[in-house]
Specification:
Blueprint lengths: L1 H20 L6 H23 L7 H27 L1
């Protein structure tokens, strides 16, 4: 359970950092947070699967969650921009 919490928090931070860093991909504060949370948990799970389930290190959880949050936020922002015209 702690792994999910760490991944979600680091994903939310990553999502907000991505939104702040790439303004045209930002989903707004709440959107960046939600996309980051989802991306953090899924990115952490994906990294854990790639590493054979050996994701006990705090650094790996934070890195996987943060990267997942950044990626999902940027992808969602890209899709939002393309759909807007």
């Amino acid at each position: 359970m702690e792994q999910l919490i760490i991944q979600a928090i680091s994903g939310a931070v990553g999502g907000n950092a991505a939104g702040a860093g790439v303004k045209n991909m930002s989903l707004g504060g709440l959107g960046n947070t939600i996309a980051g949370l989802v991306g953090g948990v899924s990115g952490g799970a994906a990294l854990s699967g790639l590493m054979g389930g050996d994701m006990s290190g705090l650094i790996s959880q934070i890195g996987g969650g943060g990267a997942g949050g950044i990626i999902l936020t940027l992808v969602a922002g890209f899709i939002k921009n393309k759909m807007a015209g």
